[in-house]
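Sanity check

After download, print the first record. It should look like this:
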Amino acid sequence: IRKVTQDSLHKHIATIPQDVCLFNRSLEDNIRYGKTNASKKEIIAASKKASAHEFICKLVDGYGTKVGDRGVILSGGERQRIAIARAILKNAPILIFDEATSALDTENEKYIQRSLAQLMKGKTVIAVAHRLSTLLEMDRILVFDKGKIIEEGTHEELLQKAGKYAKLFKMQAGSFMKSD
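Expected structure tokens:
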């Protein structure tokens, strides 16, 4: 642990925050921030996995489009997809998701969940989520209430416990079924 520096730590962690930080640069530059020496081919591949390539190609300047301060020209879901593309490109061993799919519609969330499942294989993932569908593939889920852990287990184990997690999941699944 003595050998860990801020720089070495940064190289090993990728984050997908709820409030994405984008720079007033091109989309290509914003995605490349995850891996500064990435090729255009790698950027496009990461964008496709993050379900961002299609909307990027519809923009007048495509990957060259400047996004404005904090990505103002993009919707919340588009900004999150850029952050996901950035994390896919970085391919770090530790991933931190802070409501990583909260700004996505249900259809895009399904596509991105598949990509995130691939991205998470063999990695340490810390995920904060109210949208419980984000947590289905996790090895261990901790349920907090008022700052205390009240349940823990896999998705299936928590459903069998029929506690707070199961109740919340059933409520969310019910609203998902009604919106289809």
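If your output differs, re-run the checksum step. Summary of this record's structure: Residues 176-180 have pLDDT under 50 and may be disordered.
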